[in-house]
Amino acid sequence: MGGLGYFPGDSFLHRANPILKLFLALVLVTAIFAIPSLIAPAAVLVLTFLLSVSCKSGRWMLRIIRSMIKFSLVIFIIQTLFIQTGDTLIPLFWGLRITYQGVMFSLGFVLKLIASALPLALVLRVTKGIDLADALNETFKIPYKYAYAVASAMRFVPDFADEMKDIIEAQTARGVEHDTKGFVKKARLLAPICLPLLLSGVRKAEVAAISAEMRGVSNR
Amino acid sequence: MIKIEKFSFKYKGSEKFALHDVNLDVPAGAFLGLSGVSGSGKTSLLYSCCGVIPHFYKGDFYGSVRLAGLDTVETPISELSKIAAIVFEDMDSSFACTYPEDEIVFGLRNFGHTKAEAEEITAKIMAELSIEDLRGKLIRSLSGGQKRKTALAAAIAIKPKVLLLDEPTGELDPEAKIQVFEILEKLNADGLTIIISERNETLLRKYCTSEYTVTNA
Hints:
The complex is a heterodimer.
Chain A: H1 12-15, H2 18-34, H3 39-54, H4 58-82, E1 88-91, E2 97-99, H5 100-126, H6 129-140, H7 144-152, H8 157-173, H9 183-214
Antiparallel strand pairs in A: 1-2
Chain B: E1 2-11, E2 19-26, E3 31-35, H1 42-50, H2 52-55, E4 59-67, E5 70-71, H3 77-83, E6 84-87, H4 91-94, H5 100-110, H6 115-128, H7 144-157, E7 162-166, H8 174-189, E8 193-197, H9 201-207, E9 210-213
């Protein structure tokens, strides 16, 4: 079913104009931050999920939400610990406490964060990068080169994931134990991978850019 | 079609010449095979033929390289790309799109074809190379041979006068290698000038009309 990026289909969302889809996604994201109530992000979350189901991507959307919840949990904890005003819910060590205000604010923050990411993820799910680049170029007269660069960025995400997997496998074969559950240990093991991954990313991006230029991307 | 005279090139930051005093005349319709050991400069020579050197890889450039009469140093890459197409050795990075059909449409749209025209040409090219069954499949999920054919289709769709290929049969099995060379032989018979760098000298001798051994000595 793939991660972020286009997934083929023939739903009404797949067939809709890319600019209309982008516009609606931006309207939803704006509503999340413009309306102070938590009803807005909750409504966007539900609406985006229902739209995903309509284009046979419901399970994919649940996976994205699950991943975002994991990521947001860290933000939620940090945010809650940083807000020390309001009624105490749980007293902690060193004078720190979890407050009602902190929990509510952090909950709202992560809910908005998750809800605001989903409409755009869905747009990328139902729109080919090449169609999005065409539409941005034709409608907004954005130079095609830049429209293409924006639209094709997602194309490299799976490549980087594969590259990272290769490096981890190579290190595992040399005795590095990546199969650990400890967050800090895992982070410490991943840190040395960042440089080779970055260098490989730069090299791939260079080849991709030359290849696009040689296929006339500047001609449009 | 390509005329290289007293050409030498040293990459920026390197002390050694990647290519030294190369003289080469490739007539239109040739099927030239480049042989040479690893690091001999085959890729650099291919890059020089189409303007990737010096437009993207900077360095000390001596002599002259002309593509269809155009000086590759003075002519913008947008003009050179109308004449020469290149299939890179690192194909996975060179794909611009996620699906084979889009990869072919991408180049065609860049060269002024409407969406409908591009789709029509794409269907024709995919049929010619027998890759219609790849439609809707993720490029990253394709086999090495299927990726090569997709890259080849994308390159020839824009109807270049010269096709440059950098080790296009790299990790392919013997049968797939022959398939690629048979496609190239057919394209060459239709008038396309081809320059290919290849380690397998048996294949070069069998299919190419001429051979040039690259040595950076």
